Amino acid sequence: MLTGCVGTMQSLTSSQQAAAPSNDTRACAKNFTVEGSAISLSGKKYKTNAAITGVPKAEAMSRASRKLAQDGLNIVTLDREGGLLVASNKVIAGKGPQDDAQFVTTFEAQGGALAIGMRFGTSFGQMAAEESVRENMCGVMAAIEGKR
Asked: What is the 3-state secondary structure (H, E, C) of 6-67?
């Protein structure tokens, strides 16, 4: 589960590159960005991407869905042909689908590599620790690559 990710309102800048520790060479950490604010109506959007090689799309999707399920998320959509995986994280004290935080992963073949895109969003008044979201995204990426 995206442990400790969603909490109460916090004011942050509307758009920023969330810096990974300088010694973190993982593409998922270097490419991690944050847009929006917990106090904006559209909430915050956390994104990352990386290109991997040596893992077929179907296997990458299976590994990602297993990892997300192990982490406590519910798999909502697994479109193998379209390369789309959507999982939801129930917001604590949530009262319905509008209180689910969506974790979306896309898979697209590009030449000899597989482009992986991830995004996670929180709604107005919710917050997530950037480090926690980044580490969870990188954990999914590591599972896709077969490193976890």
From this structure: CCCCCCCCCEEECCCCCCCCCHHHHCCEEEECCCCCCCEEEEEEEEECCCCHHHHHHHHHHH
Residues in CB range of 125: below 8 A, 6 or more apart: 8, 9, 38, 39
3-class DSSP state for residue 98?
helix
Q: Render the burial of 23-58: b for 16+ CB within 10 Å, e for the rest.
A: eeebbbbebbbbbbbbeeeebbebbbbbebeebeee
If one counts every other C-beta atom within 10 angstroms of the C-beta of residue 75, the result is 15
pLDDT digits (tens), the chain, 148 positions: 444 444 332 333 334 445 556 688 999 999 999 987 666 666 789 999 999 999 999 999 999 999 999 999 999 999 999 999 999 987 765 555 456 788 999 999 998 999 999 999 877 666 677 888 999 999 999 999 998 6
CATH classification (class only), 46-145: alpha beta
Domains of the chain, residue spans: 46-145
